[in-house]
Design a protein that fits this description.
homodimer, alpha/beta, 9 strands, 34% helix
């Protein structure tokens, strides 16, 4: 593992690190914010999964999460959204290939050799971070934006007891019935749609739900509402009697101006789950 | 004036607007955050001047200022750092020409026709904003980072009673004796160094000081300490008995991770000056 950069930030350290990934068979880069408390104790961790076209850097510089993570003494992980580099397959479209890994293990060519973001986020990166940093991997929570909200919700529901809490900003909520999903799941997983269901938050919510609290924020003026299909997830949460809240935020769009506006709430929500009620 | 974008943000609106600038003889773009209160009343305003290579966008997306401005009910202006576009002079160096206006009115060719950032920030843009938005131009404060800290301090000291308060993050504090300054002041203003003094915060502080409170934050591990010369300004502030504080922040560098870490303090400092002691 190599240190790309480390900047002091809100009393802690915002680092960027790269490493040779076995899951993705290429070098991967991630951001990690460690609060001041990590200098002398293990701290809990909140994962932030990013959306289409993003790298590890977008949320790290624009979401304003470090302020609140520092307040609560929580680490933040900002993974990349796909494998990258020469020899890694790509597509001219912004929503397929590099920058658009969709948090699945691809089984189809040309994606299968590198596009294994599920294993990378679920297994390889937590092990790496647990080994090298003062992070308590028994206290994890997860959030994300758009495609990353999809990733956060599907990982959280598929890995019971891994995450104390899950939240999402404008998640791709029902990809098996949306153009943000059908295209990518078809390309990465093939035409057998039965393999797609494990990567659809609405279907997972209907089937099993999440064993902790859920917080969803969705902008009411989001320019991608038709692709995100928040109403499907909201309905599924209510029908499942899922512990949590689905909030429609009037006037907000899909941008990081929306994400940053509600970041304080999300970090506080996860802190409550990670530290237990005070 | 044209609306480039408007995004809801912390209950207010983060807008980006462009207009034909008379001062700079080209189209100019600026960001303006209006808190929710601006929907029904005039709000005070905090100017944020950016550093070398920045546009209106850097601080708007990375400084995290909107959260605190929304808390206090203050507008934020994010001007560009120079004229831009075809027909506007430029230089291959990152620290001269476009992105490096240094907040002066150039008198020398090839810069004189467009590089009039002093007039743009001091006269044209405040008039435009006062005309089009619910901003109370009798309650202004100013801050900035690096070259923008230089701009904030020189404008504040040169325009008595304009600004209730001035602050800066890692300002270029003594440009007449630094390679961040001598090169640019020479290019824009010519070789007669007597014309440079009006654009040196340390010299202005020694001569006249500021008629309100001053707050300076400087990272102790800033990679540009030799170019910024914070010790010159600190000495001048103390010798002048200037109302204010110069703070050396151990371990912080020159990045927006530093700026965002102390933004809450700066906005609160300006709010106190703009609204009066509670």
């Amino acid at each position: 593992m190599q240190t790309v950069s480390e900047n002091k930030c809100f009393g802690g350290i915002q680092g960027v690190y790269s490493h040779a990934s076995k899951a993705c068979s290429c070098d991967m880069t991630f951001g990690l914010f460690l609060p001041e408390e990590a200098q002398h104790m293990q701290v809990p961790v909140l994962w932030y999964l990013s959306g289409l076209t993003c790298t590890h850097e977008n949320a790290m510089t624009k979401a304003g999460a470090q302020a609140w993570a520092a307040d609560h003494g929580i680490a933040l992980v900002f993974p990349d959204t796909s494998p990258r580099g020469e020899g890694v397959a790509n597509d001219d479209a912004y929503d397929l290939g590099q920058g658009a890994g969709f948090y699945v293990n691809a089984t189809q060519d040309p994606w299968a050799p590198h596009f294994r973001m599920w294993d990378y986020i679920a297994e390889e990166l937590p092990a790496l971070i647990g080994e090298h940093f003062a992070v308590d991997m028994d206290r994890q929570a997860i959030t994300g934006h758009s495609m990353g909200g999809h990733g956060a919700l599907t990982l959280a529901m598929s890995l019971p007891s891994r995450f104390a809490s899950v939240s999402a900003f404008a998640p791709i909520a029902h990809p098996t019935s949306s153009d943000w999903g059908r295209k990518q799941l078809g390309a990465y997983l093939g035409s057998d749609e039965s393999t797609w269901a494990a990567h659809d938050s609405t279907l997972l919510m209907r089937e099993k739900g999440f064993d902790g609290p859920v917080l969803i924020d969705q902008g009411g003026d989001d320019q991608f509402l038709d692709l995100l299909q928040p109403e499907a997830l909201s309905q599924a949460m209510a029908a499942k009697r899922q512990d949590g809240a689905f909030r429609m935020q009037k006037g907000y769009d899909h941008s990081y101006f929306f994400v940053s506006s509600f970041m304080e709430d999300h970090v506080a929500f996860h802190a409550n789950a990670l530290f237990g009620a005070v």
